Structure formats: structure tokens, C-alpha cells
Amino acid sequence: MHAFITGLQQVIYASFCLLSLLTLRDWLRHRDRPRARVAVAIGTLALVVVASDVDTLTGARYVVPAVATQVLFPWSGYAFLLVRDAFVPLRRGVRIGVGVVVGAVALSGVYFAGQTTPDGARVALPLLYYGIWLGLWSACVIEPIVKFWVVSTRRRSVQRARLRALSIGYGLVIVILAFSFATRAQATNPAVQLVIQLTSLAVVPTLYASFAPPRWLRVIWRQDEEEALAGAIHGLLLSSTDAERLLTEALDWAMRLVGADGALVRHQAGTVIAAGGLDSLSGDTISVPLTLDGEPAELVVMPGPTTPLFGADEVSRLSQFAVVLSTALERARLVESLERRVTERTEALEAKASELEAFSYTVSHDLRAPIRAISGFAQAVVEDYASSLPDGARSFIDRIAENAVKMGTLIDTVLAFSRLGRQDLMKRTVRPTEIVATVLRNRDAEIRELSVAVTVGDLPDCYADPTLLEQVYENLIGNAIKYSANVNRPLVEIGCHDSTYFVRDNGAGFDMRHAAKLFEVFQRLHRQDEFAGVGAGLAIVKRIVERHGGRVWAESEPGAGATFYFTLGSTR
Amino acid sequence: MSAAQSVEILLVEDNRDDAELALRSLSRSHLTNPIHVVKDGQEALDFMFCAGEYAHRSIDDLPKVILLDIKLPKVDGLEVLRQLKSDDRTRLVPVVLLTSSQEEKDMIAGYGHGANSYIVKPVDFQQFSSVMTSLGMYWLMLNEIPPAHA
Fold it and tell me: What's the topology of domain A2-212?
């Protein structure tokens, strides 16, 4: 057991030496203040371990290792406080004040270490001094441990893990000291020694992980961010249409992924396009290629004091991220240009539409004036010269007047039809029953005169523009009456089945072969002398129904009546 | 029309045919109120505000009603209407818009500027008469139209 413990002691001793060499190498490579202080802190801690080990091995006989332990130990705590200062600055007064106290304690340690008994052995340290000595060290170390932990809670996953490793590493040293102090009576007990040594051994990898985490550990630390990114990537890269926002968010993700403190995207020429976090390049940056607006650019991430060292793994992960980002940026750029083009075309289309509207307005106004003159003066001739007109002349003049009126009606129809296409729908919940009742009331005289039997079934409420729906019923019922006027017992049936409204008559009907022409403007399936009309009614019905998102169709057979069906699209 | 006689109806109409048909319709109904015809918006404004060739007129000598076409050369009917209705001296003269169609746009814009009524062309006496009645200008008919059986 003793041999094992001694062997373990050697391992710890070697580990601490190795650890301090690694921190030294790390500092030599980067030469920045935080790393210098980490190297000093770990180095002094290693020296303390070695010195106390030598002291123990030599049976505490020699002054030099003892003095080294007494002097170095307080300073190793202070060095850790300075590490904290490099990451999270302390006030200057605190830093200097604590330095003076530590210096005083170290000096008094030299005094005590120099005291020897007459037989040459060292005098045991007074308990009070021992307490101050440990207390000071603990204070210097516990404060940063707590501080690092607190700061870590505000950091992203990778930096958080690194700060915590630093906290835990020093926390373990505190535990060892506290445990040794508590069990100092059983200092030679192998079990106690074993616990102390195993814990000491655990300190080494923990501290090592804090300043130079190995690749596999960084991958584990990054795992949280990778998972978060996986959840966010769809929204970030595939549905973002704003390239600028996309870049800002992507920079944030790039920093989170590798625990960096700054990131930027710049063109090859050096122009910075977007930046996040630290604004000046410092330390050991990673730069990966990126494509921005079809041109080569680069994504650069910068480490901060609490960033672990970047390795090949971070570079490849960022390159991968940059490829996806390039694609997303390209996509956002396309979407942006597409939107711009759609806007431009919509504006052009709207301009055309209003031009057309102005044109149709002018046409209606200007075409009407000559028609007015034709019918007005035709009438004037009749009024003023009726007695001197031969019969033939009178009938020609009447036909001039009739045609002028008809032309006026056609113009009105075209205008009404074009108005239907542009006017806003004033949709609300309407009761077709009431609308049908109004239409029938207006046609009451006609219905009675032709003795048309009208039946109205159950008509469910719908969501529509009431004025336009009335126009639909007006046209359909008007047609039904008109085309059934010649049959023996005219019958018009108005109803609804499965949200499909219908108007049925037993009149002339039509050949289904011509059904396609039925709803076209100015298309008629009957001759003017059979049934009068300009052929716009059903076209208007179709336009209204389609503007409501519905559909209209008809079923018929010549001589067997016709049924017109329509739907009104969604209920809302 | 003599210069001395007060104008009772001002007809603002650029279309020769429309103006003639309107005058014909009014005269066939034995409406003998003095009518003055102007051919564009600027002339209408000059007449009302006694400017240009109408500088000799007195601004207090207001017509009883203005029949105003919407589409006019130089200054259009709606602008004439706006100017008449925004001037305290002419604000109270009833303005009847003559529209070429029932295009709601004209009507809404016309009423927005304070038109008192509108008539769709060609102006027939029945419609004119009913508009006058609704404007409360019975006297314009009653005084001037001889009894039907006179």
C-alpha cells in the first residue's frame, strides 16, 4: 500500500509538472495575458506540489523545499486571483492590497521555515499561522471559483463548460486542502493519503481541460449548441428572406458553435459586411471561405479570453456551417430579388389596370355623347316635323333612335361588367331567402302577368356581398321567367342542396353542346326575336360568383327547362 | 339674351349638341327663365367671379341654379364646383352636375365637393323639373311655366 501511495505521489508530481509545461507551451504559442497568468498559476501550483513532495520525501529536514513551499503556496493562490483578473478584471486596489497581504504571509512563512530545533529538524508551524496561511489561499481561490461559476452561467455552452472546468479544478484543490487540514492527525493513514492523492490526480485533467480542452471534449461541450442549431437551422437558413438579418443571426450561431467572442463576414478585399461580438481581430482566429452575392468572402471567428483553443475540428465545423450559410444567403438574395420583381410587376400591372379604368371611363363618356346626339336629334325631328314626314321616314328615324338606345345599353353593360371586376367585395353574412324575396317582389307584376308558379325552398345563410348576390338572383330569376314565359305552365324553382344554390325553370332550355358559350359576355344561345337581351346576364353572374371564390354551371335540354347552379366558395 | 337681364340658369356645357338639346328641352317646356351658356370651366369661373370678358358683371347678380357638365375643357367641372363651393360669395348657389353616365365615381366625387344634385344627360325636362323640385326651387317652374291649359 505504501509503495502504491508513493508511486501515486510520483504520478501526481509528474502530472503537475507536465501540466505546467503544457500551460507554458500554450503561453509561448499565443503570448497573451490570460494564458501567461494561467501558466504562472498552474506553474506555481506545480512547484508547490513538487516542493512539498520533496519536503515530505526528505522528512522535512531541509530548509529550501520548506521555504519554497511556504513562499510559493500563498503566491499560487494569488496567481489564480490574477487569472480571474485577466478574464474578469478586479479593481486595482483589491489586486494590490491582496498582493501585499500575500507577500507578508509568504515572508512570515520564510521566517517559520527557517526555525529549526537544536537537532536540526524544523519546528512545526503554529496552528494560527497555518490557519491564516490556508485561509488566505482559499480566499484567493474561492473568490475566482465562485466568480467563474457565476460568469459561466451567462456564457454560451462552450465557454461555460470551459469556465466551469477551471472552477472545478481549483475547487478540487480547495477540497484537498480542507480534507488534509481536517485529517492532519491521521496524515500517515494510507486511506487518507489515497483519497488526497486520487483527488489531486483528478485536479490535473480538470485544469488541463479548462485551458486546452481536447477535441473530443470540445465536441461534447458543443453538443448543446449543435442541438439548438439543428432546431433553429430550418427557420434560420431556409425561411429567412432578409439577408442582413440572416447574416447577423448566422454570426451569432458561428460564435456559439465554437465558443468564440467575436465573428465577422468580410469580402476578400477586406470590407466588413457584418460583425458581431468583439469588433477587433485578436488572437488565434479561424477564417473559412464563404460565398456572398456570388463573390468570395470569408467568415472569421475570434476567440475571447474564455474561449478554448480552436483546433482542426472547429475549422471543419465552421467550413461546413459556411457552406450552408452561403446557400442560405444565395437563397435569401434570390427571394429578395424575386420579391422586388414581383413588387415592380404588381406596380406595373396596377398602373395598367388604372390606365384601363381611365380608358373605359373616357370611352363611356365619349361614346355616349354622339349616341345622345343621335337619339336626341332623331327625337327632335319626330317632335318638330312629325306631320310632314312620310311614313317610311318615320320608321327609319324610330330605328335610328332604337339602335342608339341599344348602343347605350351595350356600353352600360360593358361598364357594369368591368366595374364588377374591380369593385371591392363587401362580404357579410346574408340570408338568400330575403334577397330572393326582394327580387320576386320587384318582378311581382311580371310573374302574375305570365302566371309563373314560383317555389322557394330552404336557402341557408351564406357569406357574400349582398348587393352582388341580389344581382346574381336578379339575373338568374329574370332569365328563368323570360325563358319559361312561352310554356304552358311556367314554373320557377329556387332552392339549395348541399351548399349549392340553384334556380330551375321548365322553359326553353338549351343544348348542352353550347353550354360553354353560355357564360361568355355578349354570347347568346337564342335569337333576338325569340328572347330579347344583350347576353351579359350570365357573364355577370359568373364574374360575381367567381369573385366570391365559387363556381357556376348549368344543366339543360332543349325544351326541357334549365337549372343553374352556383356555389359561393368558403363560408368565411 | 340682353346684358341687362339677370341670368337665372347658367349652363356650363362644351358639347354643342348637348347644349342645344338641353336648351331645346327647357324651352319646349316653356321655361322662359333667362339661360346663359358658357363653354368651358374657365369661362364659368369668369362668369361667376366677374373676371375676364365678364368683368362688367356684378358679383351679387348670381344665377338661381348652375347646370354644370363634369367633363370640360381647361378647368373641369369638379374643379369649378370646388371653387364655387369654397367661396362664400358663390357657396349658396345650387349646382346640378350633368353626368354622361351613372358612373358612381363622378357622383361620389361631385357630392364630396358639395354638388346639390345631378342629372344624367341628355337633360330632359321631366328630370330637370324633379331635381328643381327637390332643391325647393318651385318658383323657377311655378313663375315661369304657364298653366298647362292656358
Answer: Rhopdopsin 7-helix transmembrane proteins (1.20.1070)
